[in-house]
Design brief:
376 residues; alpha/beta; D-Maltodextrin-Binding Protein, domain 2; five-stranded mixed sheet; 14 helices; 17% strand
Length: 376
């Protein structure tokens, strides 16, 4: 795992969507409806917004819904682009990832057809957290913090949701950093330690890890700004081959996903979720993992009541976010068109599952908690 982490972190996020492809992919074959199915799931326990996958893995919820005799293997991907690459090679069959790589995955239909089938969650505090060096001034609010970054050295893993949010925030504040550097998480952390970086925008739980370790200060988040572009999302991606040939497996997985999201909305499950995340990660203290999903921050540094909203389907709010992210990616020449093909969002079954349970989107939200609420 340590080798995997070092290797994945060494990939520049600016290359996050330059996914390799080595020729036509043979179909895996997933059997017929009702038969057992063997699935490999790429997920990101190091990305808090996608923790419904952590819950499904930790509680083995899939066993409740998939046909008897089925197997599921969870594989850690430290970047969404890694999971997209494995989906292209059909070495992963289902993927948990952020909005940017998920959107990119659906544009590869001439290689392997993939669809976004559900929403893992949306937030203004997960993939859009600004940190500043410890000796930076005390700011009145997050907007002032970003304005201070004018002419400063600022970094982000480029090509990710952090990059989209960071550039949008610069525009909102009317500033231009001296240098806007493309750095991965390890380099950002070491640069703060060496006092060679003024600010950075990163995702959870790494943001909480740096903050709680005293390496840098949290200064702003999407909560510090108005507008849909200040938000981010995590999406569930599935090979169309499964959707086409195994509609029973698609529905089964969505039932498990909905169970996981409902579990996450209950604050009584906070300790259990932090423990599951702890069991499925390395180098992340449980206190940090808890803080990334539940930790409370003052409003002047980007805190807000909702740490994560569980939307499950592509409601109007999520569609606006997808549209903005697609335009951003098209502007960077990462996706071919500014508007996604209509098949990219394939959530009809998710909507049926939600309706059958008598639920509406969003199904709930994870609320921030005071430090005193933390329990081992």
């Amino acid at each position: 795992m340590n080798f995997l982490k070092r290797s994945a972190y060494s990939l520049l996020a600016g290359l996050a969507f330059a996914v390799p492809y080595t020729g036509a992919m043979a179909q895996v074959g997933f059997g017929k409806p009702g038969e057992k199915i063997d699935l490999i799931v790429g997920y990101q326990p190091y990305y808090t917004e996608s923790w419904s996958g952590v819950v499904i893995n930790g509680q083995k919820i899939w066993k409740k819904y998939l046909p008897k005799g089925s197997t599921v293997k969870f594989e850690t991907g430290l970047q969404g682009s890694v999971i997209v690459g494995k989906l292209l090679g059909e070495k992963n069959h289902i993927g948990y990832m952020g909005d940017m790589p998920a959107i990119v995955s659906t544009t590869k239909q001439d290689k392997v057809d993939m669809r976004m089938i559900a929403v893992l969650g949306t937030s203004r505090q997960q993939c859009n957290v600004f940190l500043v060096r410890n000796d930076a001034p005390k700011f009145k609010n997050g907007m002032d913090a970003v304005k201070w970054m004018d002419g400063k050295l600022v970094a982000a893993p480029k090509g990710a949701c952090t990059d989209r949010f960071g550039q949008w925030a610069f525009d909102q504040a009317g500033i231009k950093p001296k240098k806007y550097l493309n750095m991965n998480i390890e380099v950002i952390t070491s640069s703060f330690k060496a006092n060679k970086l003024d600010a950075a925008v990163i995702w959870e739980p790494t943001a909480s890890k740096i903050q709680l370790a005293g390496i840098a200060r949290r200064a702003a988040s999407g909560e510090s700004f108005e507008g849909a572009e200040g938000g981010d999302a995590g999406f569930l991606v599935m090979l169309y081959e499964i959707i086409r040939d195994r509609p029973d497996a698609q529905r089964a997985w969505l039932e498990a996903e909905l169970d996981a999201q409902i579990f996450m909305t209950d604050l009584n499950n906070a300790s259990a979720i932090a423990k599951m995340a702890d069991d499925q990660t390395e180098g992340m203290p449980r206190r940090v993992l808890w803080a990334s999903l539940y930790g409370q921050n003052p409003a002047n540094i980007g805190g807000g009541p909702d740490k994560l909203t569980l939307d499950f389907i592509f409601n109007d709010k999520v569609k606006v976010l997808v549209s903005a992210a697609t335009k951003f990616l098209n502007g960077r020449k990462v996706v071919p068109d500014p508007v996604l093909r209509k098949e990219s969002i394939w959530d009809a079954v998710a909507r049926d599952v939600l309706k059958a349970r008598g639920l509406k989107s969003p199904i709930g939200a994870v609320k921030e908690q005071p430090d005193s609420a933390y329990k081992e």
